[in-house]
């Protein structure tokens, strides 16, 4: 699984080594089954449509990443936390903060960070949302203001994030501000995608352990993990954990 994430050996040694790993299966009201991987109880990755996708916890620990990072404003991030996808007009495309726009590939993984409104300098957030690019870099220029740029799958305020044990959550400092990197190196399109997972899920499903709530299905087809409070069920795939050394 670590190989599928394309994490450097240095980062892997810090993030994954000597951790107890377990799997859980999230069954959504849109009939999707998503497998999340917990390391010492912290969700660090999840499997979505054959792609291994990092959570905000993993992104907060990486010393470097080949995943494009798009910037938006704090007020827009609040809407993303509320269930919106990242719309085209809300992507900062000009100047150094727009450096990754030219490397986007349709259906590739992308993260989103926020800066204060109209800020020309200062600090930004860590990556607070992860999603799938809705269009390629060449389509960005021709896209209309009503088009979606990133289909958001996961944020720092969704139910997947809430799986993190409370006593560990603060150590990741997800809401800390960091210095804006104005020297963004454009990422080669060949480096953007996480490798597709190749292992088949042979684990058995155990009985339902919780009914999270009874609400209407999510309005956003792709917004699966943000709406885990609308899941049909939440069940454990594998009770046998393993240890990474």
Write the layout of secondary structure elements.
Layout: H1 9-15, E1 20-27, E2 33-39, E3 42-48, E4 51-54, H2 56-61, E5 69-73, H3 74-81, E6 86-87, E7 109-115, E8 123-125, E9 129-133, H4 137-140, E10 148-155, H5 159-162, H6 166-169, E11 177-179, E12 233-243
Please provide a brief summary of the model.
By secondary structure, the protein is an alpha+beta fold.
Summarize the structure in words.
It is built from six helices and twelve strands. It is an alpha+beta fold. The protein has a single domain, classed as PUA domain (Archaeosine Trna-guanine Transglycosylase, Chain: A, domain 4, Roll), CATH 2.30.130.10. Strands 4-3-2-1-12 form a five-stranded antiparallel sheet. The protein has a five-stranded mixed sheet with strand order 5-7-9-10-6. Keywords: Initiation factor, Protein biosynthesis. GO terms for molecular function: translation initiation factor activity.
User: Mind telling me which CATH architecture this is?
Assistant: Roll
CA radius of gyration = 18 Å
Classify the helix fraction into a percent range: 10-25%
Average of per-residue pLDDT values: 72
Question: Beta-sheet strand percentage?
Answer: 25-35%
- CATH class wording: Mainly Beta
The total tally of domains equals: 1
* Spatial separation of the terminal alpha carbons: 14 Å
Structural class: alpha+beta
Shape: globular
Give a count of the beta strands, DSSP E runs of length 2 or more.
12
Strand order of the largest sheet: 4-3-2-1-12
InterPro entries: EIF2D, PUA-like_sf, PUA_eIF2d-like
GO biological process, one term: formation of translation preinitiation complex
GO molecular function: translation initiation factor activity
Protein name: Eukaryotic translation initiation factor 2d
């Amino acid at each position: 699984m670590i190989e599928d994430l394309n994490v450097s050996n240095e980062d892997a040694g810090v993030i994954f080594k000597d951790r107890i790993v377990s799997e859980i299966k999230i069954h959504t009201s849109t009939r999707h089954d998503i497998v999340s991987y917990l390391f010492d109880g912290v969700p660090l990755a999840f499997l979505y449509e054959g792609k291994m996708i990092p959570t905000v916890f993993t992104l907060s620990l990486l010393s470097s990443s080949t995943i494009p990072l798009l910037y938006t404003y704090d007020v827009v991030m609040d809407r993303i936390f509320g269930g919106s996808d990242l719309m085209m007009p809300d992507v900062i495309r000009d100047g150094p903060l727009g450096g990754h726009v030219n490397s986007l590939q349709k259906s590739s993984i992308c993260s989103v960070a926020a800066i204060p409104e109209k800020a020309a300098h200062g600090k930004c957030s860590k990556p607070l949302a992860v999603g799938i690019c809705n269009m390629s870099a060449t389509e960005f220029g021709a896209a209309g203001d009503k088009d979606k740029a990133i289909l958001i799958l996961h944020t720092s305020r969704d139910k997947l994030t809430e799986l993190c044990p409370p006593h560990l959550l603060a150590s990741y400092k997800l809401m800390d501000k960091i210095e804006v990197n104005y020297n963004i190196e454009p990422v080669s399109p060949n480096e953007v995608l996480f490798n597709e997972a190749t292992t088949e899920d042979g684990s058995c499903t155990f009985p339902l352990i919780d009914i999270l709530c009874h609400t209407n299905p999510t309005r956003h087809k792709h917004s699966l993990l943000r709406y885990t409070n609308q899941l049909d069920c939440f069940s454990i795939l594998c009770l046998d954990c393993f240890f990474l050394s």
